[in-house]
Design brief:
Layout (H helix, E strand, L loop, with lengths): L4 H29 L8 H10 L25 H15 L13 H26 L9 H12 L29 H18 L9 E5 L5 H7 L5 E4 L2 E4 L21 E12 L5 E8 L12 E8 L5 E9 L4 E6 L12 H5 L5 E13 L6 H7 L4 E3 L25 E3 L13 E3 L24 E3 L4 H17 L5 H16 L4 H13 L2 H4 L17 H12 L6 H8 L6 H13 L3 H12 L20 H21 L11 E4 L1 H7 L10 E4 L13 H6 L8 H13 L23 H9 L2 H16 L12 E5 L20 E6 L4 E2 L5 E2 L2 H9 L2 H17 L8 H10 L7 H10 L1 H4 L2
Antiparallel strand pairs: 1-9, 2-3, 3-9, 4-7, 4-9, 5-6, 5-8, 10-13, 11-12, 14-15, 16-17, 18-19
């Protein structure tokens, strides 16, 4: 009988459930046997009675915290949480409140010392019984990259998986990563497509070379030519507006990428009529104006084009089957050539970029069958499928004469009448008949590749054993038992016995493996028969390290070190961290950690109001996130101090971002390290436009939102959540009142003022920065007289400005401890006055991200040790990463 895949998955999960129940029972017995006295030691009791009972006693206790009835049974999680809160508030000087007088330093220290010891002991006892973290599933980013590295191919599947929940700011925390039936269905669904893409049952694709010309495109030559923002030139097509233009579809619509593989691409272009360089965007995407997710987008580059001789831009990158090239000058202003203003179009003398040609070489196949196929099917013989049509070349029409004739209605001027200044050689001529240019039909997204061969093993069941025995330990990231191999082997055999073909049966086995706990879960987080043995073995350590620094599974070298039992050696571990940080795959760590720590995943969540911020464009949007990632990479590669997060004497800029920041000396789109002046407001993460954008909406800024973000993400002292029913600050796009006046509605209430005196100042310090990170001395406001203007951008006309200068910005404020600052520069210096707290916060964020568990009260001791151990390097970021990997927190479950 053939069993459904869901039944097999249930069997695999049943053993895990039994083990977890056993662990829970053991933990409960340990907790019950170690219950402490409900009476606190005298120094604690005396301190609380003398300093806390006035507010925290009885049914009406402040914050519902009645310390007079709170037991000291620290094996109870909720009781322990409350005592930790008491410890933190007293240590931070927030309790007792300042109005009760200054607390005696010796009494405070004695209280904290006596409270800390039993709290640490209770937390460590729980950790020894159950480990630091709970069972931890791969999040969707890790699942995608692990599949990609396992099969040696890039997949784009994470958006098809349910969004992962977050805890303590990260979606790597095991407590938030549950599994549901919806999750399992999504895994099985995407695995079908993954196995389709990884299996190549067709001949090796022929490598070809194409030289493409925009003058051959159907769209430009027939549909958009007379109303679009471009001119047809003798050597190419000149474009005068970015892609967002209503009449521009800058797609090479007669060519589509034939195979998903690596290609070499060469674009030849030059600028015209421009003293300033122009940014040219080169990417791939779908056809038509409205691109969909059916065809992914791939950015090849934003390049700087100058007037003069043609420039050549070369790329080597993986492209996806069905993509089309889209090339346009993204730094030029948006324009709309109204159709009946044909004279304006032909006479347009503004700057532009001439695209001469696009040369494509590929697919470049290093091995055939590719690694993905060999990882699944290595050594399995194949045979041709009878009576099957071969896959058609989607670009075969380019090998034949053009199928249509263009009707350009343009006449080329004689040489003595050409515009020598502009170089324009063509005029619109409605009497002109059919033109003679070549033109090819518009292409379509090709159908998926279909197999032309099938597997034909002589001994199918023997092949099943061989393939699963080889594949399973790599997928599970550890050695596997014969019983584990047998489980999946029996599954495939059942399908074969029911008459299914070899490929269908084996795909069922692969889907079962790739949706089982062995692949889905971090192995170091799974329960074992010996719960007291919480130190990670070498294979679990290799896995934790690789998912930390590569967001994926261990490579061969890590696995071999783990097999030999060498990875746990501190020197070997340090050497591997160095190797992994130097590997290009470490960019995944930089991207994913920053996406979560700094909320960069939200960078595209809002679109700035185009009436208030017309200078925002797609190139600037891309540059924002790129700056932050390159800045963090510079800290990591050069072991620069983590204090650079607050303030630095350099920034990573390209010309678009330098222009946005009003910084001179950067004249192209290549990112570089730029030294900042002593009085610069830039430097550090706080004043990077990416952070300033994700902490604002598309219209206005809120000091409350930014203040909460700074306290939580940068300072590490998060504010309490607001009470229910408290309204947010409403954006005032008319500029009638200042943000400071709006804040008074919160500060006027005594209950609100307690929190807002802590929240507001960090946000106020950033008020000189608008929603896209630009500097402002005054707010912008919609001009009522221009608000209803219907914008028609015409050639040689400036873009209409619909906003006016509003009220002045005041970025000064006072912190709860009385320290005052006048602007963001002084606020940064206040933060840098406590360098250990800045370092402590980043260490805690990194540990939480790396281990899947938040910092516990007992972990704080190790955090302080890491701070001390990295002090000689000024808390260099690379040194911090090394210290974390060597710590007990990282090396235990």
């Amino acid at each position: 009988m053939k069993y459904p895949l869901s039944s097999i998955a249930a069997c695999v999960w049943q053993q895990l459930f039994r083990t977890r129940c056993l662990i829970i029972a053991i933990c409960l017995m340990l907790m019950a046997g170690s219950a402490q006295s409900s009476n606190a030691a005298d120094p604690i009791q005396n301190f609380v009675e003398a300093n806390c009972f006035d507010c925290h006693q009885g049914d009406d206790a402040e914050a519902s915290l009645d310390l007079s009835s709170l037991s000291f049974a620290l094996d109870d999680t909720e009781t322990r949480r409350k005592w930790i809160k008491v410890f933190d508030r007293v240590e931070a000087g927030e309790m007792p409140p300042a109005e009760y007088g200054e607390l005696n330093h010796d009494k405070k220290s004695t209280f904290l010392m006596h409270l800390k010891a039993p709290l640490v002991k209770a937390v460590r006892a729980e950790k020894e019984a159950a480990g630091r973290s709970v069972v931890r599933r791969l999040n969707r980013v890790e699942y995608e990259t692990a599949l990609g590295d396992l099969l040696g191919q890039t997949f784009r599947i994470q958006e098809r998986l349910p969004q992962d929940a977050r805890q303590d700011g990260f979606d790597t925390v095991g407590a938030a990563l549950n599994v549901s039936s919806v999750q399992m269905e999504a895994y099985l669904d995407v695995l079908d497509d993954v196995l389709d893409e990884a299996t190549t049952l067709y001949p090796k694709p022929k490598r070809q070379q194409w030289k493409l010309d925009y003058r051959d495109t159907h769209g430009i030559m027939q549909e958009y030519r007379r109303s679009g923002p471009f001119h047809v030139m003798p050597d190419g097509v000149a474009f005068f507006a970015p892609e967002k233009h209503a009449h521009l579809n800058a797609v090479l619509d007669h060519f589509t990428v034939p195979y998903s593989a690596k290609y070499r691409v060469k674009v030849t272009a030059y600028a015209i009529r421009s003293d300033e360089p122009i940014t040219l965007t080169i990417r791939t995407g779908g056809p038509g104006h409205s691109e969909s997710d059916e065809v992914p987008k791939t950015l090849l580059g934003h390049e700087t084009v100058h007037t003069g001789d043609p420039q050549v831009f070369e790329f080597e990158q993986r492209l996806e089957r069905g993509q089309f090239f889209r090339i346009y000058p993204s730094s030029l202003p948006y324009m709309r050539f109204v159709p009946n203003l044909k004279v304006r179009q032909k006479d347009y003398q503004g700057p532009g970029v001439v695209i001469q040609s696009v040369e494509v070489d590929g697919p470049i196949v290093d091995q055939w069958p590719p690694k993905s196929h060999q990882q699944l099917w290595e050594g399995v013989p194949t045979e041709p499928l009878p009576e099957v049509e071969p896959n058609k070349d989607p670009n075969e029409h380019l090998l034949k004469p053009p199928s249509d004739i263009a009707k350009p209605r343009l006449t080329q001027l004689p040489k003595d009448k050409r515009n020598k200044e502009s170089g324009n050689q063509w005029v619109y001529d409605p009497k002109q008949g059919v033109g003679g240019e070549r033109i090819y039909r518009r292409n379509r997204i090709p159908d998926p590749l279909h197999p032309t061969m099938r597997f034909s093993p002589d001994h199918p069941k023997s092949e099943v054993t061989r393939l699963i025995t080889r594949f399973l330990p790599i997928a599970y990231r550890r050695p596997v038992s014969d019983n584990e191999v047998q489980l999946f082997e029996n599954l495939v055999h059942r399908w074969l016995d029911e008459g299914d073909d070899f490929e269908t049966a084996m795909r069922t086995g692969y889907k079962a493996i790739l949706s089982s706990p062995g692949f889905l879960y971090h192995q170091g987080s799974l329960p074992t028969a010996s719960p007291e043995a919480n130190e990670l073995n070498d294979h679990a350590l290799a896995e934790r390290l690789s998912f930390f620094l590569w967001s994926s599974m261990p490579d061969r070298q890590l696995r071999e070190l783990a097999d030999d039992g060498k990875l746990s050696d501190p020197e070997v571990l340090r050497s591997e961290v160095e190797r992994m940080l130097d590997d290009p795959k470490s960019h995944r760590f930089v991207t994913d950690f920053l996406d979560q720590w700094l909320d960069l995943r939200q960078l595209d969540f809002t679109s700035p109001d185009s009436d208030l911020y017309p200078e925002h464009d797609p190139v600037l949007q891309w540059s924002l996130g790129e700056e932050t990632r390159r800045f963090f990479t510079e800290l990591l590669s050069s072991d620069l101090s983590v204090l650079n997060v607050i303030d630095s004497d350099f920034a990573m800029l390209n010309s678009r971002l330098a222009d946005h920041y009003a910084i001179d000396g950067v004249d192209d789109m290549t990112f570089r390290k730029v030294n900042l002046s002593d009085d610069s407001v830039r430097g550090g993460v706080l004043t990077q436009a990416s952070v300033l954008k994700v902490t604002a909406n598309g219209t206005t800024t809120s000091p409350v939102v930014r203040g909460v973000w700074v306290l939580e993400r940068i300072v590490g002292t998060p504010a309490n959540p607001p009470p229910p029913g408290i309204p947010a600050i409403e954006p005032d796009i008319r500029g009638a009142i200042t943000v400071r006046q709006q804040l008074e509605q919160h500060r006027s209430s005594t209950s609100c003022a307690t929190c807002h005196k802590k929240i507001d100042p960090p946000g106020v310090a950033l008020e000189n920065f608008d929603v896209i990170g630009g500097w402002r001395d005054r707010y912008r406001a919609i001009d009522p007289e221009k608000a209803d203007i219907k914008v028609a951008y015409l050639p040689n006309k400036s873009v209409p400005i619909k906003y006016k200068t509003g009220l002045p910005v005041d970025s000064s404020d006072t912190l709860p401890d009385g320290r005052r600052f006048d602007d963001v520069r002084e606020f940064k210096q206040i933060l840098l006055a406590n360098p250990d707290q800045v370092t402590r916060n980043l260490i805690e964020k990194l540990v939480t991200y790396a281990t899947g568990a938040p910092i516990s009260f007992a972990d704080r001791v190790e955090v302080e040790q890491i701070i001390e151990s990295t002090r000689p390097t000024g808390h260099g970021l690379r040194s911090v990463v090394h210290a974390i990997v060597q710590s007990e927190m990282f090396r235990t479950k």
